[in-house]
Amino acid sequence: MRRRRDIPADPVKSTSETVAALGELLRDTLPSADSAQIVTATEALESFAFYLVPGEHLSREPATLVAGTLACDFYTLHGEDALGAEEPAAPPGATKETEWELFLPVPAGAPFEAADLEAAHPHFRAGPAPESAGAAAVREAISLADLVDPQALRLAGGE
C-alpha cells in the first residue's frame, strides 16, 4: 500500500533535525530491521540532505521507503506549511520487515550523482520508487488466495 508522510522542515527544523526526524520514522516503521543499519543510513543521508532539504527538493520529489507491502513517500514541508504541521506518525504495514530500500531523488543540478547516492549506503536507491512498489507482494498474496478452493479444503478436512 502506498502511503504519504509530511515532515515539517524549515523554519521549524534545521536540515539536521529534519534528517533526524526521518531517521526516527524509519526506526519506528521498521522495528524488526537492523537498527544499526538505519542509524548508518540516517548518517549517510545527511550529506545529501544538505542539498535536498534547503532546496525544497523533497517537497516536490519524495524520499520513498519500500519494505514488503509498504511504500511510503516522505515529503518535507517548508515555510508556512511547516509552521502548523504536526509530526507524522510512522506508517503501518512494515513492522515485521527486515529488508528495505530508501529511494531518493537526484534532481538536475545536484552536486552528487545517482552512483554517489547508491554508494553511500546499501539500502539507498537513486530516483523515484517504481509505481508498483509495495503492491507486488499484495498482488502475489491475493493471487495465492485465489488458488485456494474453500470447498476443496472443507472436503479434505472431512466436513
Secondary structure elements and pairings:
Blueprint: E1 2-8, H1 15-29, H2 35-52, E2 63-67, E3 70-77, H3 80-83, E4 101-104, H4 114-120, E5 124-126, H5 135-147, H6 150-156
Parallel strand pairs: 1-3, 4-5
Antiparallel strand pairs: 2-3, 2-4
Helix pairs in contact: 1-2
Question: What report would you give on this structure?
Answer:
The chain is of the alpha/beta class. The protein has one domain. It is 40% helix and 17% strand. It contains six helices and five strands. It has helices spanning 15-29, 35-52, 80-83, 114-120, 135-147, 150-156, and strands at residues 2-8, 63-67, 70-77, 101-104, 124-126. It has a five-stranded mixed β-sheet with strand order 1-3-2-4-5. A hairpin with a 2-residue loop joins strand 2 (63-67) and strand 3 (70-77). Helix 1 packs antiparallel against helix 2 (35-52). Residues 137-147 have low confidence and may be disordered.
